[in-house]
Amino acid sequence: MKDLKYQFYIAGTPEEVWKALISPEGTKQIYYGSVIRSTFQVGDLLEYVGPGVDGDETVHVYGNVLEYEPNQLIRFTHYTGKSYMKDDHAFESRISYLLEPIGSCTKLTLIHDQWEEDDPYFENSDNAWWMILNNTKTLVETGSTLDFGEGS
């Protein structure tokens, strides 16, 4: 399967973009109420937890931290939560957020790669990343997120 790669230029500092991507205040807005639970130590668990099919503590996706450099890079393995796939280790992929200052803005690159053949969440991920990344850009630049309507 091909890699998913997106680049956005955001009118904000790397610290502001990082806060939107990592802090509970930011993630709740761009990930529809979810927060990241992790120590952010290499090898440790990372979970996106929030409202969903199993209530407020639904684990949507999880993995292990591979690299972590505040305001610059986070890379982790990616598995779909047990609520969505009984054999949640059947398909592993990897997510990388890379932040780079460019002039007075930040270049955010997201790479979702190392997909397993026939991963049923590939297409859904491609669709979802556009909304998540547009919400990230909008949040940093305006202080609010976009309204994608119900079911987003």
TrEMBL record:
Gene3D superfamilies reported in the protein's UniProt record: 3.30.530.20
Known Pfam families for this protein?
Answer: AHSA1
Q: Specify the Activator of Hsp90 ATPase homologue 1/2-like C-terminal domain's residue ranges.
A: 13-139
Coiled-coil residues are none
The name this protein goes by in its record: Activator of Hsp90 ATPase 1 family protein
Q: Which superkingdom, per the lineage?
A: Bacteria
Family membership, please give it.
Answer: Belongs to the AHA1 family.
